[in-house]
């Protein structure tokens, strides 16, 4: 199995350990995780595919329709899909998302 296939399998398998109820990282609404989108703030390059947050469909659409706002809120990494982000960068990004969760 190639590295890419292995990462894709890990991504698919990760769903089984996610909580059934998730909170949107954008607006805070809680709902069944299958009604939400797994959003990759740093893109899907390499191991970044395993780093995601849940967004309701409206927040996910807004994150991609308004990239400058989403970047300011931490929902998009400024240099998406260029490299794997580090654990420290991911932790900082999650903190920024949490800090800005209810700001539009």
Description:
The protein has 104 residues and is α+β, with helices and mostly antiparallel strands. It has one domain. It is 39% helix and 12% strand. The protein is built from four helices and four strands. It has helices at 3-14, 57-65, 67-73, 87-99; strands spanning 21-23, 30-32, 37-39, 53-55. The strands form two sheets. The protein has a two-stranded antiparallel ribbon. The longest helix is centred in the last third of the chain and has 13 residues, at 87-99. The N and C termini lie far apart (42 Å). The relative contact order is 0.17.
User: How much helical structure, as a percent, in the residues?
Assistant: 25-40%
Total number of domains? 1
User: N-to-C SSE series?
Assistant: HEEEEHHH
Largest sheet report:
2 strands, antiparallel
Low-confidence stretches: none
Distance between the termini: 42 Å
Beta-strand proportion: 5-15%
- Main structural class: alpha+beta
Number of strands: 4
Net shape: globular
Indicate the mean pLDDT.
91
Radius of gyration: 13 Å
